[in-house]
Each structure stands twice: as structure tokens, then as C-alpha cells.
Amino acid sequence: MSFYDIKEQILMCQDCKQKFGFMPKPVFHGKEHSKIMQIGQAPSKRVHETGRPFNDPSGAKLKYQWYQITDEIFYNEDNFYMSGMAHCFPGKHPKGGDNPPPLACANKWLAKEIEMVDNELYIIIGARAAKYLFPKESFEDLVFKNNPLNGKPAIVLPHPSPLNVRWFKTHPSFEETRVPEIREMVWDVLGIKNSEI
Ligand code: SF4
Q1: Which candidate, 24, 56, 163, 189, has a CA 20 to 30 Å from the CA of 46?
Q2: 32 lines ligand 1 (CB under 6 A)
Q3: In CATH, what number is assigned to the domain containing residue 181?
């Protein structure tokens, strides 16, 4: 099956319709040869409504504060392939926040995307996605080092959601020292020089 076929099948997937109680809307983005494969947890309600990945407060922090890149660079499909454990917004949890991403989506689609996308660098976003891809390692350890995944380097990020404020308060060194290292790796893969930003 070609990469194009996989993308078409993901776009048509309605496996979680009953579980969600509404029509699933797969949101993902990129090409087979995108330089960076970014793997999040699940699209937010705003991403579900707009159909544009990372078009929410979490995305703003990720793009403008951590990577310090423009939307033009971020949404260029040559640069980023954006996927997630779940490709659809999983609905709101009655106690607040979103429902967890359905694991079945990661097993069915993400595994195939990882196999087929010819990227140079992985960026894994959030503790759930990290646990799925690195089940034996502690999240704290993963965030502060470069990790091997599928024979390539993988960066693990805490979720940039404003709801994650407690983690940032208890781990100030992440934004002070680790984010500049991560930015350098991202810029390096994308071929960005300081003078271009
Ligand atoms: S979350 Fe994944 S498995 Fe569920 S409907 Fe969306 S694409 Fe299909």
C-alpha cells in the first residue's frame, strides 16, 4: 500500500464514531519526505473545528516561543509531518480537559506513518505520546535528552498546553536550558540560520 493510500484511508476513517458520539474528523498534515515528524496526543476542539493542526494556544507556544518559527515555516509540508496518537479530537471529558486519545488509532495508523515517513527528526509531544513510544522510560528522563526512535533522533516535549503550567513551574530548567537546545536542533534540520528569523 502506498503512502498516498494510507493518507486517504486515515482521512476516511470513522472507527471511533460510536465511541465519540460525534463524527470523527481526522486532522494531520505533511508529506512522505517531511523533514520533521511531530507526534502529538490528539487534536484539540479548536483544531477539530478549524481543521488546522496546532492552531490553538498549545500550538502558539510550540511554534512561536519554543521553536521560534513562523507559520509559513511550520505549515510547509516539506518541513513538518504532523500526526498524533489519535488523529481526531476525542471529545471533552466530563471532569474537564479532553478524553484520552484512543490507543486503537495509534496502533492502526501512527505505526504505519512512522514506518513510511522518511523524516530526519522526531518530536514527540506530551507524556501520553511519550509513554506509547517509550513505554519503559521515565518521562522526566526522556525530556532532557535526545532519544533514539526508529534509528533516528527523537526529542520529547512536555505538552505546551496552558493547563500544564504546574509542570513548567516544577521544571524551570526545561524552558531555560532544554528549549534552546531543541530549537537549535529544529533549526538545524530545517536549515534555518539566525539571520533568517
Ligand atoms: S481517532 Fe483515529 S481511529 Fe478514531 S476515527 Fe479518528 S482516525 Fe479513525
Answers
A1: 189
A2: no
A3: 3.40.470.10
